[in-house]
């Protein structure tokens, strides 16, 4: 997987652990990560974890150090960085994951909005028919949420709700997080050993 680039965006839905664990796994297998985070997601990270994220200007160095990444392996792009590769269809194709994906973000993407880089990057992925995975964690779901997800699914987007399974007999919260992250990695066709294969 070395030299493969994955765009990872975190938005304001609860479930920061999913996005951070996915970032960790992508770095471990040698992927380059183009990272974006919304203001709401920053608040969620600091609420749900022990991480206190620095300002955008220092975030890249912070993530590189905390996730044991190589220099340049994680690139951070701000919400208004319209020169980011993900903002244009003429850039090299990458897979994109929005994890967690808030209901508001899913709504904006389903409507074709491009009010910030995360929405624009998703819009580009859809129009260029590139892989886009959204990981909603909202519950309960309204008809609006469901219709927006159906719209995205019809456009070829993978809607992968953060719904951990229990047949692997999880022993910790980390096991539940790993279940969902393993399914994301499977969709990305990235080898993972987080979850035993059914029948193994």
Helices, strands, pairings?
Layout: E1 5-10, H1 16-28, E2 32-37, H2 39-48, H3 56-66, E3 74-76, E4 95-101, H4 103-110, H5 117-127, E5 132-136, H6 143-154, E6 158-159, H7 173-187
Parallel strand pairs: 1-2, 1-4, 2-3, 4-5, 5-6
Helix pairs in contact: 1-7, 4-6
Over the alpha carbons, how many angstroms does the gyration radius reach? 16 Å
Q: What count of helical segments does DSSP give?
A: 7
How many domain modules?
1
CATH topology (fold) name: Rossmann fold
Task: Describe it.
The protein is α/β, with parallel strands linked by helices. It has one domain: Rossmann fold, CATH 3.40.50. 40% of the residues lie in helices and 14% in strands. It has seven helices and six strands. A six-stranded parallel β-sheet has the order 3-2-1-4-5-6, with helices on both faces. α1 crosses α7 and α4 packs across α6. The model has no long low-confidence stretch (mean pLDDT 96).
In short:
The protein is built from seven helices and six strands, in the order βαβααββααβαβα.
Question: What key phrases describe this protein's structure?
Answer:
alpha/beta; 200 residues; six-stranded parallel β-sheet; Rossmann fold
């Amino acid at each position: 997987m070395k030299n493969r680039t994955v765009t990872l965006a975190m938005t304001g839905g609860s479930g920061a652990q999913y996005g951070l664990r996915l970032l960790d796994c992508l770095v471990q297998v040698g992927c380059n990560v183009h990272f974006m985070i919304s203001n709401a997601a920053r608040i969620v990270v600091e609420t749900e974890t022990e991480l206190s994220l620095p300002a955008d200007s220092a975030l890249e160095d912070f993530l590189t150090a905390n996730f044991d990444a190589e220099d340049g392996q994680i690139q951070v792009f701000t919400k208004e960085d319209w020169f980011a590769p993900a903002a244009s269809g003429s850039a090299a194709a990458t897979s994109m994951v929005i994890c967690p994906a808030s209901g508001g973000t899913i709504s904006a993407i389903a409507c074709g909005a491009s009010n910030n880089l995360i929405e624009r990057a998703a819009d580009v992925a859809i129009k260029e028919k590139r892989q886009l995975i959204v990981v909603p964690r909202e519950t309960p779901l309204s008809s609006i949420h469901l219709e927006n997800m159906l719209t995205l699914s019809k456009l070829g987007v993978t809607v992968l709700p953060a719904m951990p399974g229990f047949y692997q007999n999880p022993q910790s919260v980390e096991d539940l997080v790993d279940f969902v992250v393993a399914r994301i990695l499977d969709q990305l066709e990235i080898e993972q050993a987080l979850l035993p294969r059914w029948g193994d």
